[in-house]
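Let us work through a complete example step by step.
Step 1: write down the sequence.
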Amino acid sequence: MSKPTPMIEQYAELKQKQSDAILLFRLGDFYEMFGDDAKIGSRELGIVLTSREAGPGNKMPMCGVPHHAVDSYIATLVQNGHRVAVADQMEDPKLAKGLVRRDIVRVVTPGTLTEQVDPRRNNFLVAVLTVTGGSGAGLAACDASTGELSATQVDGPDAMKLIADEIERIGPSECIYPADMGECGAQGNAGLPTIPANSTAFSRPLTDFDLSRAKSTLLSQFGTASLDGFGCAGMELAVRAAGALVSYIRETQMTSVPQISRMRTYHLGEFMRLDTPARKALDLFGRERGLLPVIDNTSTAMGGRLIRAWLERPSVSVREINERLDAVEELAADVILRGDVRAAMSRIHDLERTCGRIGCLTAGPRDLIGLAASLDAAAGLAHLLGKASSKRVQTLRDELDSVPEASARIRESIQESAKSSPSEGGVIRSGYDEEVDELRKASTEGKEWLLKLEAQEKARTGVKSLKVGFNSVFGYYIEISHANAHLAPDDYIRKQTLANAERFITPALKELESKILGAEERLVRLESAIYRQVLEDVSRYLPRMLETARAIAQLDVLACFAEDARAMGYVRPQVDSGLATVIREARHPVLEKVIGPSRYVPSDIDMACDDARLVIITGPNMAGKSTVLATVGLITLMAQVGSFVPAREAQVGVCDAIYYRTGSYDDISSGKSSFMVELLEVATVLNTATGQSLILMDELGRGTSTYDGMALAWAVAEWIHDQVGARTMFTTHYHELAALEERLPYARNYHVGAVERGGELTFLYRLARGSVDKSYGLNVARMAGLPREVIRRAQQILKDLESIQPSGGRQMTLFGWAAEPPVAGLEAQSNTASDIAAWAPKVYERLRDVDPDGLAAREALDLVYELKAMVEE
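Step 2: predict the structure and record it as tokens.
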């Protein structure tokens, strides 16, 4: 292979530093990709693949993107799972001697992407590590675009499961872990919690997770002498994860990332537990019919991210919840104040992400102008809230620091009409820097200066034909004809002789030329240098500005809840530490929005751990049993995030967890049937729920045979009632479970009924006391459009099956056919299917060879006693 060109050699050296990343190499006005990177870039970005001479007789694939639009291309590559390294020119090509010096200035990964990200969602990077044996785990999460950093630690045998659930909740785009198989293995190994499928995972040097180094990293990042103020006592694994995370972000961004100015440590018990099945079943974040699209009327991107975070982690603190509710109540009651607050919010830009870009030194001039305007709006917002009475609003008002020093620094230096990039010029305000003003004047008024000089020289020499011109080789010159050459003053310096004229330069013209030629390029360089200094100056105020941003986000969400309450008729829930959930005229917030409030049929819910803690709901298909479950779950969750709720009145005792088991899906990738998924979810509930939890069980046992399913449902219901003691709603088509009300003191039967007239089924949708004994499955099949022949055949089969049932219209129960509910102690004598299966073969063997006609009376009686003894055994 021929020797590569110097530029390709330089590229190869930089590529070797980041061999696992696509290298964007700055060449003039473009960032170029070469070799395999170019092939990937061409495919992912949809741009033309060309080639470049890499040496004598050697061509190399190449493609490129314009420098001014590089961020959008980087985002596309990263969102498609690639790491991107950016190599920039480290000196002015016009001033460089030989090859322009280049170096990698940043590495962009899925978790460190700060541009072109969803404005209403965080982009989290997480670090995780576990101790040998999985008895402890540490987790840290950071959104580099906002500077939000948090860390937690879990100890005990369930650490891996709990940390995996937390990672699933966070939904990171990237995860890092120690490259030590003894402590934390690669994805899928026993040493590493399960990483979500849409997250990329990278191992990092074990030294990054060393406790001493992690502490040093965090102390230098926060500028403190101790980590005690961050609540890190006894959380060494959390500290190690956080330190490794900050090291990684510093390394990739190649800056000090000052936007990461604090760390919040937390324990999982501080928030309501919502595992993945519960989040899916409640459909919190569905695009069209999820809870978030219905209640999210926030005015800022910051508020949009925070309302999602609150829904992901509802509070379990009665004090915290009621402070939020007090604030919502105040804003809901004052329509003028609420309107003014939301109007002020609409003028505020995304301060958090602007601060993130400032910290990474990638913020543009328009970002700074928007920042100054937002800080001014924050001052106005604080004024609006001057007479607020609720504690939370008062606290947030006092945290609204308008940071006048930052605003003044921006306004004195940056043009209001500045373009989006400092490289486009026109960034620095006129009058701020004398040299900038001169260069700007030279670039815009150069022609006028030349005309003025020409007039001056004509008057000075008396040569009317004298002219000032420009030549790309010799630059600017003064031209005089040969006939008038003797009139040239002594300070004229001959530069070129032509056939009919002489060309001269003067010190004044030379000075003017130095100002005009390249003035625009020098202006851009100077403005860029000044702009970077302004960025660095403003970055000193990042902690204060981020505090303001976080306060604005909370006010935005609280004002949003107040707007929802007034617009949708929500009421303030009474939230306490009790174990009761009592809701009058409860409504499903999403379904009500879809079908309209006039058509929605509300229901009353009454559950208390010392009274009706196990609610068994029967009723036909399509009648709304599952809707009732979701309604209770959503109202409980809304109350615990501090929102008003869709009901006439509501009392909610704080729940430490919501378990919503549906199990109506399989997990093919891991070889789990829908029934196995169902049982795994049930096992989680039975093993982790407490008396303060809310359990929503939807049709347990439908994935297996009738007897097995009913037996499981019965046993699970008893266990939850007797052992867990949690508020539980249990929907079922096993009408036999209605007998539990007579057996269990805290069980209550409810139903969602329907009326059948002339074969037509009318659903009532309202929850009422008592149970039903019919599911109307064939009616629903008819509504679904099954062929009439199928419906008729099903009716015949149903009639045949019902004819097998003994007379009297008795229901089949777990104790056989009985007219009355079973009584305590009967189980030991019951002829259940399992009992029959145990003694039937013995009876068969005993009777097979018996000749009834040959038995004497005494022998027949002895045989009966023998069979009786076999049954009793």
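Step 3: interpret the result. The first helix runs from residue 6 to 17.
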